[in-house]
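Regression test attached.
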Amino acid sequence: MNPLNHVAIIMDGNGRWGLKNKNSRNLGHSEGLKVVEYIIQETIKKKIKFLTLFAFSTENWKRPSYEINYLLNLLEKFLKEKAKKFSKEDIKLKIIGKKKFSNKLNKLLTEAEKKTSNNKKLQINLALNYGSKDELIHAVKHISKKKEAINQKNFEKYLFTKNIPDPDILIRTGNHNRLSNFLLWQLAYSEIFFIKKLWPDFNIQDYRKIIYKFKKIKRNFGNI
Ligand code: IPE
Ligand code: IPE
Ligand code: MG
């Protein structure tokens, strides 16, 4: 049975779900947030230590401003409501990506990170304004200023995911088989599950099935 330390998720399909069921892409985002809550609870139950959620990409700025604003407001509301709960439940929140939002939101994010920084049960990495190519360039710029050797171990210290083990599992809902600039370095050996369902339809049974399948996969890492 494979050990499972880290699950990463590309939560895709909110917009399509919203259009189909509520005639509004934005309402799909609200619905998607409900799924986040029970996936967090199940992750804790399974004693998985890291959960990385792709919430907003560097490319998502191309979307219409009413959708971007809706998403960022949703995030603000989520942080205000959950920061205390995270503290109480021993959940650590870390933002991966550059915090380039409104001053108010940047502050809320930094505060939530600070308040939860010593928590141990589960670490949630929220990928916000995150793009893997940006992250890699950032790392190259920083390591090239140092005198240390350029090798994998040193390079990883300059990624936003410093000190976080690589994901064992990547889940992408929403019926697209692509990475969309997510964790290109870190996913080198992850087991990838592309799921047809849209994110708001993804449920605990779907999550459990993936974990069950993962446990039985023969992971080679190049060996036999
Ligand atoms: C993913 O759902 C959530 C974000 C990108 C914020 P989408 O909004 O991409 O939903 P679809 O893929 O358009 O249905
Ligand atoms: C990936 O979904 C980003 C998030 C889930 C936050 P997108 O919907 O942005 O991906 P593409 O553009 O369809 O590849
Ligand atoms: Mg999408």
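Expected vs. actual: identical. The longest strand covers residues 122-130.
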